[in-house]
Amino acid sequence: MRTFWSDPYLWIHAAGVAAVPLGLVVCLLGLAVGDPLLPVWLELGLIAIVGIAPIVWMQWQKPFYIFSLVAVAVKPERLTDDQRRILTLFKSRRSPVWIGLGALVMWVLLWQIYLIAPIAADVTPFPVRGLGLGVAAIAFLASNLFLQVPLSVGRVLLASDQEFAVAQPFAVEQILPAFSVLGLKVNQIVLPLLPDEIAAAPTASIGADPLNSVTDFSTPDADDSADIL
């Protein structure tokens, strides 16, 4: 196993690909509502643009910041050197081929879903076609995100230990401009898997936000007790 594979964020986001089918099912239910309001090519084109273009642009220009979950993200200054090396690999191992193949696969799936959508007409919960199209576009956007991010993670996981070792830690001050960092910034979300990674994690500085800092509740030593008495 490669040394950097122990980072839990890599596996959490790699597992996100499991959410793709769920997003496509919601997309199917949205497309199953009523009769088309627009020509087929236009409806498909609009959903594809909304669902594919923003994610492709993000992954190429400002890749998703994987040290985040849902609506919270680890502060860049709280990352270890190894985690910042992982960010360097995300930048250096970006591949337009992988991104393009992911987009092509999602387009083909959207076309197939559009063709079979009428079979779900009796079970869709959405009342009108316009609302259904909006839901379908959002669900398709989420599906693309949950595919493209794991693809990028896969590229990083394929890097060798040597490539990881020579990678320079990404500059802390450059992380926010270079990556899409979404959500509330906190000191920590997921505990490291290995003890040495816990020791390597930066500690909160004096004066840090008390809501995001760990308070030391250790028992005072004998000298401190004597002073108190």
TrEMBL record:
Transmembrane feature ranges: 9-32, 38-57, 97-120, 126-147
Domain of life: Bacteria
Key words of the record: Membrane, Transmembrane, Transmembrane helix
The protein, known as: Low-complexity tail membrane protein
Organism: Phormidesmis priestleyi ULC007
UniProt lineage: Bacteria, Bacillati, Cyanobacteriota, Cyanophyceae, Leptolyngbyales
